[in-house]
Amino acid sequence: MNSKLTRRRFIKGVIFSGAAATTGAGVYLANAQNGAGTAERLINLNINGRTRPVDVMPSETLAYTLRYKLDLTGTKIGCNRGECGACTVLVDGVANYACSVLTHNVKDKAVVSIEGIKSVDGTLHAVQQAFIDENSPQCGFCTPGQVMSAVALLNSNPRPTREEVRAGLSGNLCRCGAYEHYINGVLRASRQIA
Amino acid sequence: MPSHDVMPNMELYQPVQVEDALAIADRLAERGWLVGGGQDTYGWLKDRAKSADALIDLSAIESLRGVRETADGIEIGALTTLSEVATSDLIRSSYSLLADAAGVVASPQIRNIGTLGGNVSQDVRCWYYRRGLSCYRAGGNLCYADTPQGMNREHALFDQSRCVAAGASDTAPALVALDASMVVQNLNGERVIAARDFFVGPANDIENTTVLRPGDILTSVRIPSAWANAEFYWEKVADRNVWDFSLVNVAAAFKTIDGQIEDSRIVVGAVQTTPRRLTEVENAIRGSRRTADTAEAVKELSTTGARTLAHNGFKVPLMQNLVKRAISS
Ligand SMILES: Cc1cc2nc3c(=O)[nH]c(=O)nc-3n(C[C@H](O)[C@H](O)[C@H](O)COP(=O)(O)OP(=O)(O)OC[C@H]3O[C@@H](n4cnc5c(N)ncnc54)[C@H](O)[C@@H]3O)c2cc1C
Ligand code: SF4
Ligand code: FES
Ligand code: FES
Q: What range defines the domain where residue A82 resides?
């Protein structure tokens, strides 16, 4: 069987079991009856400077598409509800939570995930290098999101104050509490790029 | 609570013209769910606590975005993001009260996509209701929060009527303080509603937080110049500075002549379902100076009529102190 088809079936299976796991039987039935318009549609997603065709369900989130359909698993899902920032990506240069954006919503926009941050020749972005130099990450789970927020901040404000960095990264939770190290990293990167 | 990685299967409409959006919203009525930025919407859907057949995504309708000057003030498209509201020069320069309120909603990423229209139209944040329990607000016949064991630390002090949920929107009190009005369209035409009448409490309608009905779309918010460049005060107190909803907030505007208060608006958020305007306090301080004595004199008056629940008693002194600071700062 064609691997794309298998993958598509697998994804449908996941959606099905997700709905079946709900408590209210009524809700599940309502969803099951609503089979009509919910087919995947092929869109061209502009991701990390490339155009990639991908089949997307109408209400699918960008984090889901990136991780489970495009194998871009650098974007983490921590809470899946806008409360942690692990899924942060750039949409037309603006930091958004990929878990709380529909993929169909960004189909005409340029999306950059953590995989698209280093330059084509493999050189790390100044923020990534600075995070290494400052030992910013602890467990590392929140790191991709922290990098994305830092890049968004430095793109709009290359010379931020410590307070501005704090505000710029405030939508990214770090369970390890490595905040000060991330802030040091952003300030180091700022000195390098400015 | 089951946590879901996926959204439920739904149809998605992405109109680019407001006329098309109105036609779809009218046709689908209760089966459709309007989406501005989706930041309130997706939680409901992922939890399967509420459902609809189709999402009507308004974000591609360019005519509903942006801030412009009008003959008497400014008009803000309902789809303008909270980040845009917080940083707009037009808003910052003369109506900074609203910019300040929008600038502390949720987190930067949520403000980057969450809209002003969605912010004022969002539903209450009561755990029980959000969990999908069949409480009064969900059409049932009991309240889980207003019990001795209930988790009601965040809940209301005033205007309780079976439901004791507090309003969640940070921009709502600022809009009421600025005498804003809301422009609502449906297939039958347009109506303009004063912000203070746009928000509704449980005594009047227990299942909705606003007057919006299926088929209605909030298209813009108008702010009259009446309060332009007044002396403003905004403060939000929450458990954390990011993500958390207001425990109490205050949005105030003062016009003074030779240091004496000629007119004011003092509106407190998160103490009832709707923004609470303190008209009696406004009357009491008219003619006085914005001093600590003036503030102290209306301390008790500011919370007269409060009925505390088992765990939200702290909101009374919090609210008094915020009102005092607003007056004397
Ligand atoms: C983690 C988290 C923290 C939050 N913290 C805060 C906070 O501190 N303060 C605060 O105020 N809010 C907070 N919110 C709530 C809310 O998500 C945001 O305020 C945001 O502004 C909502 O806007 P939206 O456009 O994304 O809403 P949506 O989810 O798109 O819409 C919300 C509701 O309004 C309706 N709606 C949207 N646009 C229109 C329109 N034009 N006409 C008619 N109806 C419409 C929708 O149908 C829906 O019912 C938080 C949310 C999350 C997830
Ligand atoms: S406070 Fe309102 S929303 Fe919460 S459980 Fe009671 S009735 Fe339901
Ligand atoms: S996974 Fe998106 S904010 Fe937590
Ligand atoms: S480094 Fe562990 S969560 Fe941030």
A: 41-116
